[in-house]
Amino acid sequence: MNSEFNKRPHRRKNILTGEWILVSPHRTKRPWQGKEEKPQHKEAISYDPKCYLCPGNERAGGGVNPDYKETYSFKNDYAAILDGPFESTKDGLLEAETETGLCKVICYAPDHSLTLPLMEDHQILSVVDLWQKEYQELGAMDAINHVQIIRKQR
Ligand SMILES: [Zn+2]
Asked: What is the distance in A from the centroid of ligand 1 to the CA of 68?
């Protein structure tokens, strides 16, 4: 694409609908004089009775966490991919196939306030050990072709 199009207003054609839409890329360079928020400093608590991940609490999916004392992992109650049979469909422009798999959640520590930067070395090592254990166990399953460990900020 001609780089001038990224600097000035223009129309782009949606190749699926044939419609033309207005694009104004230069507007991203306008100054911001709106409200700015200061970072909030929440008091650190080691246990939150409303947290779905804290030991002994009911999770969002209805299960109950054990009273874990170190790291803890469980099957994600709202997994991005699920077990199930292969299915496919093709209907007009829509072509889809099921994608199956397993998602797990790892709780790093029973202390609600702990994050990796605040943890002691032996606690971080426990997290890394559990990452390795889950990676190896999931990777050994016939139906699993790829294991990816991601970290989601609370
Ligand atoms: Zn918690």
From this structure: 12
Residue 25 lies in a domain: no
Domain that holds residue 91: 47-149
What is the CA(87)–ligand 1 centre distance, in A?
A: 37
Distance 128 CA to ligand 1 centre (A): 20
Q: In this structure, what CATH number is given to the domain that contains residue 141? A: 3.30.428.10
Comparing CA positions, the residue from 6, 13, 11, 12 lying closest to residue 27 is 6
How far does the centroid of ligand 1 lie from the alpha carbon of residue 132, in Å? 23
Cα→Cα distances 26→3, 29, 52, Å: 12, 6, 43
pLDDT digits (tens, 9 = 90+) for 65-89: 999 999 999 999 999 888 888 899 9
What tens digit of pLDDT does each residue of 107-154 get?
999 999 999 999 999 999 999 999 999 999 999 999 899 999 998 765
Number of structural domains, the chain?
1
Distances (CA, A) of 135 to 23, 68, 145, 146: 44, 21, 11, 9
The whole model's pTM is what? Answer: 0.69
Ligand 1 centre to CA of 40 (Å) is 19
136 CA distance to ligand 1 centroid (A)? 26
